[in-house]
């Protein structure tokens, strides 16, 4: 299997020893994105809605670099520091997607990097 690193300056650079995404040909695994503004590498100001919008925009940028869109995503994993934000997250998340929606898991965690309230990673599949 060939693995290729996906890298774009339109999304935050990795803040650790990992790639923004790995492209295996058929599948692209996008690393967790938090609501960092790519140009400043600082968290976006705002509530869970603003943070979710930034995360989705970051994911979209990495997917675009791999010549993919949210239509190609088959799985989301979402990490929230407060499950009380679940409904706001859902409303914002839904603005970027259409049916059939990807599979998804949402889990509450005690902390996320840099004090973020939300992090998401995705798996996307190329159409045959």
Mind explaining what this structure looks like?
The chain has 128 residues and is of the alpha+beta class. The chain has one domain (4-125): RutC-like (60s Ribosomal Protein L30, Chain: A), CATH 3.30.1330.40. It contains two helices and eight strands, in the order E-E-E-E-E-H-E-H-E-E. It has helices at 48-65, 86-94, and strands at residues 4-6, 21-23, 27-33, 36-37, 42-43, 73-80, 103-108, 118-125. It has a six-stranded mixed beta sheet with strand order 1-2-3-8-6-7, with helices on one face. A two-stranded antiparallel ribbon has the order 4-5. Helix 2 (86-94) links the parallel strand 6 and strand 7. Helix 1 packs across helix 2. The protein is globular, with a radius of gyration of 14 Å. It starts with a strand and ends with a strand. The mean pLDDT is 96.
Summarize this structure as a short list of keywords or feature phrases:
128 residues; alpha+beta; 60s Ribosomal Protein L30, Chain: A; six-stranded mixed beta sheet; two-stranded antiparallel sheet; 8 strands
In short:
By secondary structure, this protein is α+β, with helices and mostly antiparallel strands. The chain has helices spanning about 50-65, 85-95; strands at about 5, 20-25, 25-35, 35, 40-45, 75-80, 105-110, 120-125.
Low-confidence stretches: none
The CATH homologous superfamily: RutC-like
- Computed CA radius of gyration, to the nearest angstrom: 14 Å
Number of strands: 8
Major sheet, described briefly?
Answer: 6 strands, mixed
Please give the CATH class. Alpha Beta
* General shape: globular
Structural class: alpha+beta
Strands in their spatial order, largest beta sheet: 1-2-3-8-6-7
CATH fold description? 60s Ribosomal Protein L30, Chain: A
């Amino acid at each position: 299997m060939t693995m290729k690193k996906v890298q774009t300056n339109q999304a935050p650079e990795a803040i650790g020893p990992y790639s923004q995404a790995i492209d295996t040909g058929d599948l692209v695994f996008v690393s967790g994105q938090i609501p960092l503004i790519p140009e400043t590498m600082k968290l976006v100001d705002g509530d869970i809605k603003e943070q979710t919008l930034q995360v989705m925009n970051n994911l979209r940028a990495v997917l675009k670099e791999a010549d993919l869109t949210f239509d190609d995503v088959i799985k989301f994993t979402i990490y929230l520091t407060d499950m009380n934000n679940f409904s706001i997250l859902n409303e914002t998340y839904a603005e970027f997607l259409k049916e059939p929606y990807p599979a998804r898991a949402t889990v509450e965690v005690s902390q996320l990097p840099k004090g973020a309230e939300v992090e998401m990673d995705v798996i996307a599949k190329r159409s045959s």
